[in-house]
Amino acid sequence: AQKITQTQPGMFVQEKEAVTLDCTYDTSDQSYGLFWYKQPSSGEMIFLIYQGSYDEQNATEGRYSLNFQKARKSANLVISASQLGDSAMYFCAMRLLTGGFKTIFGAGTRLFVKA
Amino acid sequence: AAGVIQSPRHLIKEKRETATLKCYPIPRHDTVYWYQQGPGQDPQFLISFYEKMQSDKGSIPDRFSAQQFSDYHSELNMSSLELGDSALYFCASSQWTGTETQYFGPGTRLLVL
User: Fold this and answer.
1) Exposure pattern of B56-95 as b/e (b: 16+ CB <10 Å)?
2) Integer Cα distance of A36 and A105 in angstroms
3) Out of A54, A86, B46, B92, which could bridge B34 as a Cys pair, Cβ 3.0 to 4.6 Å?
4) Distance between CA atoms of A112 and A107, rounded to whole angstroms?
């Protein structure tokens, strides 16, 4: 069975510093996609970044980058130059790309950015 | 850019009543997903549709049903509502392009009294 583990319930970071949010996953499938979403207190789910299991390069989207270590089954999100507006809940998610559309989420990490 | 539309945004129902949530995916997106997010919880996958056919099923109660129509909009029907059904219900859509990135709607906040 697939599983996503986010071991940091909460994280603090100083404004303008970088922060890494951890995500490990478990699957025996070779073809999967990993996603990170941001959920502010307003409740919407905002897509941040995607990494495919066959992608050799780490994904980057502006201030977001994904540190993908396939052998360790980890897909950590790195946010550079944190801003106050980055304070939110962050979810790591995985979808197998063969044989189904089910997507599983981790428990999330709440990030607090301090001024 | 067009986003996923969900209606209603808020809904209050009594126990044992029924509710219908609607989702309008991003144009040209062929896959719709439904999720339930309880307070302080991560989103739980309920069901998905690809090209109007049910493609996968998660932890959706038997009291719930869903379908995708010819115009690709989807509806989640919930009957015999229970207090525990109070949650934020998200619809997401994606396009079969390889990345399968799911874009979420704003959600419907359901409160069952």
Assistant:
1) bebebeeebebebeeebebebebeebeeebbbbbbbbbbb
2) 9
3) B46
4) 16
Pairs across A and B, CB distance < 8 A: 55
pLDDT in tens, A60-76: 999 999 999 999 999 99
- Which chain A residue lies closest to B54 (C-alpha atoms)? A101
CB distance from B34 to chain A under 8 Å?
Answer: no
Binary contact (B56, A52; C-beta < 8 A) = no
CB contact under 8 A, A45 and B45: no
Rounded CA-CA distance A82/A77 in Å is 12
**pLDDT single digits (tens) A25-62:** 999 999 999 999 999 999 999 999 999 999 989 999 99
Q: Which residue among B48, B101, B106 sits closest to A44, beta carbon to beta carbon?
A: B106
CA atoms A24, A26, A29, A32: torsion sign: negative
